[in-house]
Write a structure and sequence with these properties.
With about 280 residues, the protein is α/β, with parallel strands linked by helices. Helix content is about 45%, strand content about 20%. Strands 1-2-4-5-6-7-8-9 form an eight-stranded mixed barrel. The protein is globular, with a radius of gyration of 20 Å. The relative contact order is 0.12. The protein binds ligand C2E and calcium ion (CA) (3 copies). One calcium ion binds next to strand 6. This is EAL domain-containing protein.
Amino acid sequence: AKHLGKNQLALYGSSMRGHSIRQLTLESDLQKALQRQEFQLLYQPILTLDSRQTVGVEALIRWDHPTRGLVAPADFIPVAEDTGLIVPIGWWVIETACEQLRCWSEHYHPLSMSLNISSRQFLEHDFVARVEEVIRRQQIQPHQLKLEITEGVAMHNPQIIARKFEQIQALGVRLMMDDFGTGYSSLNYLKSFSIDTLKIDRSFIDAMLQENGIEIIRTIINLAHNLNMDVVAEGVEHEDQAQRLVELGCEYGQGYLFAKPMDADRLKATVLDPKTG
Ligand code: C2E
Ligand code: CA
Ligand code: CA
Ligand code: CA
């Protein structure tokens, strides 16, 4: 008898093998991963650049795969986006992060929590109502929650997006523009929408000490400040970068210089500040 299972995939012919089969396998694995609770969140501190105080963390997802170990988001988020699985995964992230915030608030001084929100999830019609519901159920302070959105959302109906932004800010939740400067509509986005914080993409910080690097960062920071936004520099790895960013008036930084993403236990042991008395 012929083998069933994986060998059947040979039916698709050689051109379909490789990429798309990997994609199919990954899709069903991701579905199982959700059911089996194989995802976990790591937390990377965000600090004030001048006094180096941790003011918040960004939650970054990992897949704790039974055989492959910890899988980075770059290896599964794109497929999750393509298949729509990013939506249930995204709700798992929001729920888990809010539960974590609630849990920390009992014993530690409050921090803010930034979450990466895929455009696809953001565009769901009941997105705002569901966020509100989670906040209420987990009893967290809305201003502790920050949603990181990329300019991908700006490709959609601007009136609808602008209204969603307003509704989210009306809840007290803050909006951050992630990866600023990497796309082609970054400026358009700032013109059309109200955003609280701008995150300068790591590629600009990397190139900071090269020719014109400083001027570009200075321009982004001034632009943000003129529009009443705070600025977070992503991917700060070197002390001289941090120094220059302080001189340029950048408020916040995140990067390996300060701390790598870490699990909740390590965050508790090394970063969170216990309430006393
Ligand atoms: P991002 O939102 O731009 O997140 C920052 C990434 O830079 C993280 O990678 C972080 O670990 C890394 N990073 C931070 N500091 C440094 C540094 O100093 N040097 C270097 N080289 N890298 C640094 P990570 O965790 O692999 O996440 C990659 C991307 O995956 C994120 O980029 C985000 O777009 C996406 N992602 C992560 N978690 C989620 C999630 O829960 N939902 C969604 N939709 N996307 C997520
Ligand atoms: Ca982010
Ligand atoms: Ca980013
Ligand atoms: Ca980035």
